[in-house]
Design a protein that fits this description.
Blueprint: H1 4-10, H2 19-29, H3 35-43, H4 46-56, H5 70-77, H6 79-94, H7 105-125, H8 133-140, H9 143-151, H10 153-166, H11 170-178, H12 182-192, H13 197-205, H14 216-233, H15 247-253, H16 257-262, H17 264-278
Amino acid sequence: MSTAQELISRNGKLFSLPDLYFRLKSILDDPEFSLNDVTKLLGHDPGMTARLLRLVNSPFFGFAAKIETVSRAVAMLGSQQVHDLVLASSVTQTFAGMSSEVMDMGVFWRNSVYCAAAARLLASNCNVIDSDRLFVAGLLCDIGHLVMYQQLPGAAQESIERARQEDRPLFRLEREILGFDYAHLGGLLARQWELPRTLRESIEYHVEPMRSEECALETSIVHIAHVMTTTFRAGGAQDAEDLHVDPHAWRITDLSPEQSLAISGEVEQQVSQVADLILPQRRRARA
């Protein structure tokens, strides 16, 4: 059985993001970059431009006037949010053609958007200034499973079935069967893509938020959002006491189960607003 690092290293090209993302990242890493540089780059990719304009004109952002040009969209969103939206779109496109042999990909992505919207709203409740950043953190926290579904479908299916039968956390069954879990695998992928530390830690440590070293608040928010997803959406439960959140996450965020339940309706509304704009077209599923 391969180690997690071997799995990522051996399939590096298979799980590579589009060149557009890395060119954008290179521009933003330059202390002297301008928004005009960003606009020019995106203007050379009609597909990304179209997706960005659809998103920025959606109720999710709530801008009063319609935004018709990529330059205006970049100016309204700012460099950080443009980075996050391009990253989110790049990841969903990278995995767009995956088989649904182990997991229905439409359901997977809708749940990912639910987690993203929940993380964004929870961050706002925690008075996180840059709460929109938590959207992409929530969206990507499950990416390690995409690698498993494609490269280790049998072990991934066994883990899912045993976790359901034994009523145990999925990541613990994965560790027993594979020697690593999806969160660790996702963290390695995030490092390969050179994602910001906030994203790397929230992806790798959201199953055990106390392990986060520098991004404890963000990781704890994603942990709660992920538990909400598996409880309210995937599991169908709608009671606060059903949220099996790590006590450490409640302490770090100063949130409560009741607050999480209270935003669940708004989360579903945001999923409806944004899911079809960001998800791979062939893999859409109904809420």
